[in-house]
């Protein structure tokens, strides 16, 4: 295995939501090493202005490159992707940088009623990147856009009561879900945090409504870019052991215990995150 192949992949989000993307990455690339930063000292990004998100994204990318020599960067946050991915790619042109966007394209392609619900942060829905994505799908489907103020924060804090109340309020405000003409048969989860409320959302919108999130497409694109760069980490020899595969490393810029708790609750990982000061 070459030194380039052995370098880790950096993954970051404003908090614990990006763990849903990390989960997909680990399923797609079980041999890879990951370093995850939860910027929960500045969460949620969806309720911050673009300039703030831009500064935080660059500070985290700089940390990944300087301290871990990453071979790829995954921006596991819709808001940060919209605000910062173009400038990140300009600063690090040789580094594969993979972003995430709400799954509007597959939703439009697969919806039978032609009506798609989209739950996202207000910052994502107001971004130029989202506007361009929406415009590119003009005439392909009708999109019902729902800003979900406070939902990412409730999930971040594992506030189940508030999460359920907000999910109920927002899905009810969107209108009717179902298979009949004019009803939404697809719901796009446009924030990585929302994946952790998927079971509750599914029960509210009905079992026939398709829920789409972005983790799996990001994982597949990450694999493609690593293969193209010849930096995909090789699997151990058949019959060998996996001791050479280091566990993921986790950092938090805020409440470390929130990240530790989320890792155990949603990824079933017992780990102790390291406090990180990037101010």
Overview in brief:
This protein is α/β, with parallel strands linked by helices. The chain has 12 helices and 10 strands. The protein has helices at 3-6, 19-28, 50-68, 78-91, 104-110, 122-125, 128-136, 151-156, 160-174, 198-205, 215-229, 256-266; strands at residues 9-13, 34-38, 72-75, 97-98, 115-120, 142-147, 186-189, 210-212, 249-252, 274-275.
Protein model, in words:
The chain has two domains: about 5-100 and about 215-275, Rossmann fold (3-Layer(aba) Sandwich); about 105-210, 3-Layer(aba) Sandwich (Rossmann fold), CATH 3.40.50. It is built from twelve helices and ten strands. The model is unreliable at about 240-245 (pLDDT under 50). By secondary structure, the chain is α/β, with parallel strands linked by helices. Helix 2 crosses helix 11 and helix 3 (about 50-70) crosses helix 4. This is Glutamate racemase. Keywords: Cell shape, Cell wall biogenesis/degradation, Isomerase, Peptidoglycan synthesis.
Number of domains: 2
**N-to-C CA distance:** 36 Å
CATH architecture classification of the largest domain: 3-Layer(aba) Sandwich
Given helix and strand content, the structural type is alpha/beta
Uncertain segments = 240-245
Helix content: 40-55%
What's the topology here?
Elements: H1 3-6, E1 9-13, H2 19-28, E2 34-38, H3 50-68, E3 72-75, H4 78-91, E4 97-98, H5 104-110, E5 115-120, H6 122-125, H7 128-136, E6 142-147, H8 151-156, H9 160-174, E7 186-189, H10 198-205, E8 210-212, H11 215-229, E9 249-252, H12 256-266, E10 274-275
Parallel strand pairs: 1-2, 1-3, 2-9, 3-4, 5-6, 5-7, 7-8, 9-10
Helix pairs in contact: 2-11, 3-4, 9-10
